From TrEMBL:
It comes from Marasmius oreades (fairy-ring Marasmius). Keywords: Endoplasmic reticulum, ER-Golgi transport, Membrane, Protein transport, Repeat, Transmembrane, Transmembrane helix, Transport, WD repeat. It comes from the Eukaryota. The keyword Endoplasmic reticulum applies. InterPro entries: Sec12-like, WD40/YVTN_repeat-like_dom_sf, WD40_repeat_dom_sf, WD40_rpt. It is a single-pass type II membrane protein. It is found in: Endoplasmic reticulum membrane. PANTHER family: PROLACTIN REGULATORY ELEMENT BINDING PROTEIN (PTHR23284), PROLACTIN REGULATORY ELEMENT-BINDING PROTEIN (PTHR23284:SF0). This is WD40 repeat-like protein. The chain crosses the membrane at residues 305-325. One of its GO terms (cellular component) is endoplasmic reticulum membrane. One of its GO terms (molecular function) is guanyl-nucleotide exchange factor activity.
Length: 331
């Protein structure tokens, strides 16, 4: 259902619901950690992180590692567990929200959870993943470590007024910049007002945030339909997105300028996309059982593309003028 990896350590975390016959005799071991080594994938540990409401089904829709790989955030619709890795012992009490959880990201000392209504910023002061690993194996000390490591809600960021639309909007994704601590990105799908004839589809925006003062610096509408998936390249240069209009696109992370757009990339809306480790390829997939691989252009940046387009227009204009002068002289 969701996946994250720590490449340097060869660790892979997934949300995978247990088989029906296993659910009949025990809890859903939905959170699983694997070791990838010598071209083999081995199961390391499993645990249950789902807190069901009124018997409803749920799944692990959020899986995210901290920057050092020592902590793992596993979130379902209305709860998020912070686990030590790879033992999957609880690092703190689970976070519960009334709003639906869609994503989470780590900085060096913060955990930001994206819900439909707001961004919840939690402080992680003094979190020592190694200490949690040791304490989680000591039984009686486990409860004490959980109590001592309770997450502190530092602030809540509501949807910016400029993006609420006439009927509101919602966050769909959040990503911390991998090399610039004060930069963060979010996806917002707005809900314009309905007209008498028909409802207006959601519009997809990508926003750039300054986490020093927690303000939105830039926003860009990238689709006339809602965005379904979002990714940030490992080198921090590119943003990738998929839209319910079946397209995928790449933006310059610094300026939010368009780098590339692929229309009708899939027959169904893309469900996930990710850059490869060198940030040279963007891979997307869809419920139509297709995978698409797009090469990221070598030359990016709004200024470069803008000047290229300007030069082309000037060349066309000069050609038209020269042709007109030539015809005039021949008359």
């Amino acid at each position: 259902m969701s996946m994250a990896a720590v490449l340097e350590a060869g660790i892979l975390a997934c949300g995978i619901n247990s088989a029906p016959e296993q659910l009949a005799s025990g809890p859903n071991k939905n959170c699983r950690v694997f070791q990838v080594q010598d071209k083999k994938i081995s199961l390391v540990e499993t645990c249950s992180t789902l807190i069901l409401r009124d018997g409803d089904d749920d799944f692990q829709k959020v899986t995210a590692f901290s920057l050092d790989g020592g902590l793992l955030a596993a979130g379902s619709s209305h709860s998020l567990h912070l686990l030590s890795c790879p033992s999957l012992g609880l690092a703190c009490a689970p976070v519960s929200t009334e709003q639906e959880i869609y994503d989470a990201t780590f900085s060096s000392d913060k955990l930001v959870v994206a819900t439909t209504a707001n961004l919840q910023v939690y402080s992680l002061p003094g979190f020592d993943a190694g200490a949690f690993e040791k304490s989680s194996k000591k039984g009686k000390q486990k409860a004490q470590s959980i109590e001592a490591a309770a997450l502190e809600l530092e602030r809540t960021l509501e949807l910016p007024s400029s993006l609420r639309g006439s009927s509101g909007g919602s966050y769909r994704s959040v990503r911390q910049h991998p090399t610039i601590p004060e930069v963060m990105y979010t996806v917002v799908n707005t809900a314009p007002a309905r007209t008498r004839s028909k409802s207006t589809p959601r519009q997809g925006y990508i926003c750039k945030w300054n986490t020093k003062n927690w303000t939105m610096e830039k926003s860009r509408k990238v689709s006339d339909r809602g965005l379904t998936c979002f990714s940030l390249s490992p080198d921090g240069r590119f943003l990738g997105y998929g839209s319910s209009d079946l397209s995928i696109g790449i933006l310059d992370a610094k300026t939010l300028a368009t780098v590339a757009t692929i229309l009708k990339a899939h027959e169904f809306p893309p469900t996930t996309l990710v850059f490869n480790t060198t940030s040279k390829l963007l891979v997307s997939s869809s419920a139509d059982n297709s995978i698409r691989v797009v090469r990221v252009p070598d030359q990016v940046g709004s200024s470069g593309w803008g000047w290229s387009l300007l030069l082309v227009l000037i060349a066309v204009l000069v050609s038209i003028i020269a042709f007109a002068i030539q015809r005039y002289l021949l008359q």
